[in-house]
Each structure stands twice: as C-alpha cells, then as structure tokens.
Amino acid sequence: MILIVGGAGYIGAHVNKLLNESGYETVILDNLSHGHKEAVQWGTLCECDIKDIDSIEKIFEEYDITAVMHFSSFIEVGESVSNPMKYYQNNVVNTLNLLNTMIKYDVKKFIFSSTCATYGVPQKIPLTEDHPQNPINPYGWTKLMVERILKDYDVAYGLKSIILRYFNASGADESGLIGEDHSPESHLIPLILDAAIAKREDIKIYGTDYDTPDGTCIRDYIHVNDLADAHIKALEYLNENNTSNEFNLGNGKGFSVREVIESVKKVTGKEFKVTETPRREGDPAVLIGSAKKAHQLLGWTPKYDDIDDIVSTAWGWHKKLNKVNDDE
C-alpha cells in the first residue's frame, strides 16, 4: 500500500491515477486546503493534516503502508518570502512529523517531491544533480532542508529516499479527468489559457531583454504524466536497490515565454492581449535541467517533449474546468 501525502493536488493526483493503473493500492492523505476531493478518483482518501501526528499514526495503524510519496508542500515563491513562517512550518516541521511516524512504524521507503529551486542561480546549463545548491528564497530552502534531513535519516535510521527535483510541471491527463487547478494560479500555461478564454484581460511578459534568442526567459516544461511515470520508476528503483538517490526531472530542452504564448495561440486558435512589463527580480534568463541520470538509472524518458503537445493536454482540461465549448 502506497501512502500519497498531498494526493488530491495537481501532481499527486496524476501519480495516484498512474499508480492504480499500474496495479498498486493507494491511500491518499490530504487536508484539501489546496487539493480537490474530486481529484481523488482512485484509492482511499483520508482527510487530515500532517501537522496532526495522531491522525498520521492512525493511517499507519489502519493500513499496511510500504512506501510514502510526499507532495504536500506549499510552493509559491513570492509567498514564501512574505510569509516564511508558513513555509518552514508546513514544508519542514510537518514533513518531520511524517518522517518520524514512518520511523516509528518501520516504513523505510520515501519519495520526495523536491524542486530545481534548491539550485538557486544557475552556474551552468543544463543543471545537473551535482550543481551547487544555493537557494535564493525560503521555498527553495525548505526543500533543501528536507533533502538534508533525508540524508541524515538514511544514515541514522536506514530510511531510504529518492529525491526528485522538478522543473516546470505542466499539462494534464489526456482523459480529462484531472488537471491543474490552483487557487490562486501562478503557473504560466494555465495563466495564458485564462487569457485565451478572456478569464483575465492579458498575459504579462516579465522582461523582454534577457540574453535569449527572443529576449524572454526560457524554462524547462515537463508534462505531469511524465512526472508521474518517474515516480513509479523511482519506487521500483527503491524496491530493487534499497538505495537512496536524487534525480532531476526535466525535458532537457527549454521554451521561451514567447514560444509558450505562441503555442497557446496555435493550439486554441485564439488571440489575446500580451503586455510587456519589466523583469521580476530573481528570474534567471534560462533554467533547463539535465535528466541524463534519470534516463540512465531509472530508465525514464519523457513522452511529451513538444510544447504544443503539452499545451494541448492543458487546453483540454482547461476547457472542461472552465466550461468552455469548442465553438466559443
């Protein structure tokens, strides 16, 4: 039985679906503060919070948990700067509650949803797992702190973990059953799609004078189902090798903000207002990750490597979420 913490959220729900389709049984722990009950269409939902140790222990007592996947972190960089207390409490302290409960109940396999934000400002592109980790915001620091804790818990308690550092999660399951639904939304593709359906008046480009071919930032977009596939391969790796490790999860290629905007126009067939504004502080010009290690050790290769394909799946979900008809 796999415990998915935060399994009602965007990435967790896609991982839950694929785990069940692959023959695994799942239990989903989620307080539904950011997740959605309707996204849990597979497995068993336990509505509780990992700040409540008694509730976590009840799950471990009731179910035969063999491994834990953890997705229930807060992820907004700006908010982490303005309210770091919230981020250190949830992302670090509450994660410790989960890890300590695992030790108590002798569950020693953990897959952690980390981030490329632990690297900070890139010194080289593409980013590899041995790149120095120097976060530039509290969100990145909370993830790096948990990574450090996991290394110490491996040595002291034999808790084996796989750390997965994501780049830009994007897209949606092609079934249309689940997809991206954040409130507030901060990810680029759904924001552009909101502009395409006139849910917002424009899409803003923050900076057009970067040292990139079209002057806008370049990012590595990885489809959420490719992320889900990587989690299952990471679990299999952990089961086979019983060895901790860390992997970047990205496409290994980048798309600029302008390229993503043009892709949305192409896929949706809609025009919308684009507003150019000054740079945001702390935005690197290029963030692209190398997933060579994941290819070699996990046998993982992204299936969605074209931005139009990624946007198309996001558009299918976005229309359903916002009740948009094709003829609108």
Tally of individual helices: 10
Architecture of the largest domain in CATH?
3-Layer(aba) Sandwich
> What's the CATH topology name of the largest domain?
Rossmann fold
**Can you identify the CATH class of the largest domain?**
Alpha Beta
Q: Tally the structural domains.
A: 2
Oligomer: single chain
Dominant shape: globular
Q: Biggest sheet: strands side by side, in what order?
A: 3-2-1-4-5-6-11
List the helices and strands and how they pair.
Elements: E1 2-5, H1 10-21, E2 26-30, E3 44-47, H2 53-62, E4 67-70, H3 77-82, H4 84-104, E5 109-115, H5 138-157, E6 160-166, E7 168-170, H6 188-196, E8 203-206, E9 218-219, E10 221-223, H7 224-241, E11 245-249, E12 255-256, H8 257-268, E13 274-277, E14 286-287, H9 292-298, H10 307-321
Parallel strand pairs: 1-2, 1-4, 2-3, 4-5, 5-6, 6-11, 7-10, 8-13, 9-14
Antiparallel strand pairs: 9-12
Helix pairs in contact: 1-7, 2-4, 4-5, 6-8, 6-10, 8-10
Q: What labels would you give this structure?
A:
328 residues, Rossmann fold, globular, 3-stranded mixed beta sheet, UDP-galactose 4-epimerase, domain 1, 14 strands, 7-stranded parallel beta sheet, single chain, alpha/beta
Walk me through the structure.
This protein is of the alpha/beta class and 328 residues long. The protein folds into 2 domains: 2-170 and 221-249, Rossmann fold, CATH 3.40.50; 188-219 and 252-321, UDP-galactose 4-epimerase, domain 1 (Alpha-Beta Complex). The chain contains 10 helices and 14 strands. The strands form 4 sheets. It has a 7-stranded parallel beta sheet, sandwiched between helices. The longest helix is centred in the first third of the chain and has 21 residues, at 84-104. The chain is globular, with a radius of gyration of 19 Å. The chain starts with a strand and ends in a 7-residue tail after the last helix. The model has no long low-confidence stretch (mean pLDDT 95).
